[in-house]
Amino acid sequence: MSRRALAAVVLIAGLAGCSSDDASTNSTPAPGQDSGTDAVGTDAGGAAGDGATAKDGSQDGPKPEGGAGKDGGGGQGGAPDGGDAATEAEADAPAGPPTVLFPRTSIEASELAILVNDDDPQSVAVADYYQKARGVPPANVIHVKAPLANNWPQADFIAAKVQVDSTVPAGVQAYAISWTKPYLVDCMSVVSAFALGFDTKYCNTKGGCQPTAAVDYYDSDSTHPFTDHQIRPAMMLVGADTDKSKAVIDKGAAADATFPTGDGYFLRTTDTARSVRYPDFQSTVQEWTHADGLTLQYLDNSGGTGSNVIENKSNVLFYLTGLASVPSIDTLQYLPGAVADHLTSYGGQVPTSGQMSIAKWLEAGATASFGTVVEPCNYQQKFPVASKLLHHYFRGETILEAYWKSVHWPGEGNFAGEPLAKPWGSKASFAADTLTIETTILRPNVTYELRSAPAATGPWTVVVAGIVVTQYQFKTITHQPATAAFYKLVEAGQP
């Protein structure tokens, strides 16, 4: 039967923990390295995968970058030696939409545990809603008893942490915390206390301005944070009430596979002390200003001749700034998956603070935010680094992972929002014997290749070689005729 005559079928299956050359064989990842693949079955004339729309949400996707012959892969393109053998293998494959395997780029819902405070009705309701919304296994819902107060005293917290550690299922890599209070464990944020374990090295106990301990998860390539780094990054499902927390969850789930292109705003304000991140803001915008990049703006009002804020903007994807309180955030329309934060001392106190709480960003429509719960001073290492955040988020990581990887000294900071929001990644579509892959996961200056096989176990043959990008960007890869049952995108030289 011709593939053109096939009814549309979409098959999506995560193969976490499987080696890229044998989907049926488990392997243990080396520290800092990705392991496993995501398997996506394309449909005839449709699309499937991490993305369901073109990169800007329209029907016009990112444009391919040339390539030799029929295979537009960028770089060298074309089929290498052995292409005839690949064609013969494909010709023998059964008709049907192919399954496409992509490198693993993030944790999955099955690897997330939800912490619920049984003494807090809002926490119970939010945990139940989130578990169902994201398909988190019921066994991954862990019950604790915490005070309905801002602070969770260290001794009481440690007892609860011991209980959680003894209960959490094997394989869980991260936490979603379903309450808004307590947000503090003496001098640490509650998310860092659960992620790292309570330790005064992660917070300032000496007074004044002091550095705190670094975490080696910063800018890591790992997709197994607990396996590789012995931490379980956490994020709070913050809301002043249950409905506000549910709205954050809905916004995060709506972000998945949307492939947005912008807009992002990075502001240097007249508040000099709170604008210390501006050099990274500048370089981040410069790095992404290219074809198939993101639409970002650096706005410098350090001289006071303009405005310290943006107003009445739509399609806001990033808004990073430095002020004690940010006016007009409710005049903005935020895209699902949007990240917004302001460098100030007490933004991580939720849902209210003497300064502006990060809960206000979420109420305004952002999907995730970050702020500190005790006086951090303006050490840049205690706040998100925009360049790192965008690198990891764009390459298909969840906002939980990307945000955590952008903060080098996270002990005093609260991460709030919907942990599994994942706007970018890879998607595949099939039409008229042509396989089209649209992806954002490629690392700059790393060579990739597309391989085909008649079965998930192989044998694998390269059909598109020399796939290279020189910067972070949306990338289209095509292969025709695509008649094999299985394809996978891998780094050249990998199994």
Give an overview of the whole structure.
With 495 residues, the chain is of the alpha/beta class. It folds into two domains: 3-105 and 426-491, no CATH class; 109-259 and 339-417, no CATH class. It contains ten helices and 24 strands. The protein has helices at 83-91, 121-134, 154-167, 190-196, 225-229, 242-255, 278-288, 359-364, 386-394, 399-404, and strands at residues 11-16, 18-19, 22-26, 36-41, 46-49, 99-103, 112-117, 141-144, 174-177, 184-185, 188-189, 234-236, 262-268, 295-300, 316-321, 334-342, 368-372, 413-417, 426-431, 434-439, 448-453, 461-467, 475-479, 486-491. The protein has a six-stranded mixed beta sheet, with helices on one face. A four-stranded antiparallel beta sheet has the order 5-19-20-23, with no helix packed on it. Strand 2 and strand 3 form a beta hairpin. Helix 2 (121-134) packs parallel to helix 6. It is globular, with a radius of gyration of 23 Å. The chain starts with 10 loop residues before the first strand and ends with a strand. Residues 1-35 and 43-94 have low confidence and may be disordered.
How many beta strands in the DSSP annotation? 24
Helix content: 10-25%
Radius of gyration: 23 Å
Q: Per DSSP, what share of the residues sits in E-state strands of 2 or more residues?
A: 15-25%
Shape: globular
Main sheet summary: 6 strands, mixed
Strand order of the largest sheet: 1-4-6-24-21-22
Number of H/I helices: 10
When the domains are counted, the total is: 2
Spans with pLDDT under 50 lasting ≥5 residues? 1-35, 43-94
What class would the helix/strand composition place it in? alpha/beta
What's the end-to-end separation, in Å?
33 Å
Average of per-residue pLDDT values? 86
